[in-house]
Amino acid sequence: MTRVLLTDDQPLVRHGLRVxxxxxxxxxxxxxxxNGEEAVRLAERLxxxxxxxxxxxxxxxxxxxxxxxxASSGTPPKVLIxxxxxxxxxVYGALRAGASGFLxxxxxxxxxxxxxxxxxxxxxxxxPGVTRxxxxxxxxxxxxxxxxxxxxxxxxxxxxxxxxxxxRGLSNGEIATRLHISAATAKxxxxxxxxxxxxxxxxxxxxxxxxLGLVTPTWGQGRG
Length: 224
Hints:
Blueprint: E1 2-7, H1 11-22, E2 27-33, H2 36-46, E3 50-54, H3 62-70, E4 78-83, H4 88-97, E5 101-104, H5 109-120, H6 128-140, H7 157-167, H8 172-179, H9 183-196, H10 202-211
Helix pairs in contact: 2-3, 3-4, 4-6, 7-9, 7-10, 8-9
């Protein structure tokens, strides 16, 4: 049974998620938090497998709560950010804080439940739309210049191609189609990249792809 801690300052959102999760075999809500401070305390006391975390909350926000939860000793829970596209400015901070993925509040409910299961299984999930907006957020920052593409030691030419596509938000299936390889082969390439680059999950690969200059937004144009 995957134990889920819900964190959102809106009681109706928490109630809706609780009802939704209750109908999903293999998932159970182990607690609810209304802000970041409460989420940190409950995560330590209840030891959930996944924390569904809102970003904008009074007091401690979801980014700081995520940072504290993922930095805890032992085996910390996975954190799945609950966001809206209006939260673009917070996405990179949440990634850096250790979030394993993102949920969008207007996404299909079955996708939301599947995302919780994916993260609980140790994988990471980041919606392609969020990835594109993450890159656009970098582009919109004043005084920022694009990083120059740099060689990545220890990976093959094919793995570099896969890393670029991961950075653009493509799924394993989409990578397989783009490179004319099987989905299993694409998954194997991603697994090897995680090991070779000492990345915690797919989300960290997205960050690396950007920081290595492999994914380049249209600089100087903001988010129109």
